[in-house]
Specification:
Structural class: alpha/beta
CATH class of the largest domain: Alpha Beta
Strand content: 15-25%
CATH topology of the largest domain: Rossmann fold
Order of helices and strands: EHEHEHEHEHEEEEHEHHEE
CATH superfamily of the largest domain: Response regulator
Number of strands: 12
Bound molecules: calcium ion
Helix content: 40-55%
């Protein structure tokens, strides 16, 4: 599922955009001020950004520039003033598209889709192939951090993904909960190995057809877990 960040200080507009995009199947996060938006944009992975120009704190110009220093995902800039749009075009900040408010939410959705499709074609043709693990209907793209089971994409938390990838990357090897905890949560972590059990349960719910008879991650009683090759 593509993830979109909206940076927009007018809450009603942000909510409207969010609703339409979510109805179209996108995952959407909203930041209502510039600094929060910029921090989020740089800290998390988004497939597309929608940036309002005039924002409290850091403005859309600056956010666009900073995102472009680090990321290539499409950016759509939004402004209430036609003049501003002309100005930002001229600045060559690296935005991919510009929209003048007010616009129809369905037009926004159409543009988002077009930019995502274009971007996917672009990375598909230029970037080297992702590292993929494929075992009996389970496909893990370790580069894009995406998982499919029988062609259906499932979403995983960071730790669930790390744990699944670690196990699938070392098939037929039995790991104790202790070893897995140290591997995925690092030694300094405060927590206990019950965390591993909880995460294994969550992963199984997503990838197993019958969680009481797991085909991928086996429980080795009294020892730990093994990914069946
Ligand atoms: Ca604004």
């Amino acid at each position: 599922m593509s993830k979109i960040l909206i940076v927009e200080d007018e809450v009603s507009i942000a909510d409207l955009e969010k609703d339409y995009l979510e109805l179209s199947g996108f995952e959407v996060e909203v930041a209502n001020d510039g600094q929060t938006g910029l921090d989020k944009a740089l800290a998390e992975d988004f497939d597309l950004f929608i940036l309002d120009l005039m924002l409290p704190g850091v403005d859309g110009f600056e956010i666009c520039k900073r995102i472009r220093e680090e990321k290539n995902s499409p950016i759509i800039m939004v402004s209430a003033k036609k003049d501003d749009i002309d100005k930002i075009r001229g600045l060559g900040l690296g935005a991919d598209d510009y929209m003048t408010k007010p616009f129809s939410p369905s037009e926004l959705v159409a543009r988002v889709k077009a930019h995502l499709a274009r971007y996917e074609r672009l990375i598909g043709s230029t970037v080297e192939e992702n590292k993929v693990i494929e075992i009996r209907g389970l496909r893990i793209d370790t580069t894009a951090r995406r998982v499919w089971i029988n062609e259906e994409e499932k979403s995983f938390t960071t730790k669930e993904f790390d744990l699944l990838t670690f196990l699938a990357g070392h098939p037929n090897h039995v790991y104790t909960k202790d070893e897995l905890f140290k591997e995925i949560w690092d030694m300094e972590s405060i927590g206990d190995i019950a965390t591993v059990t909880v995460h294994i349960k969550k992963i199984r719910e997503k990838i197993e057809y019958d969680t009481s008879n797991p085909q991928y991650i086996e429980t080795i009683w009294g020892v730990g877990y093994r990914f069946k090759m």
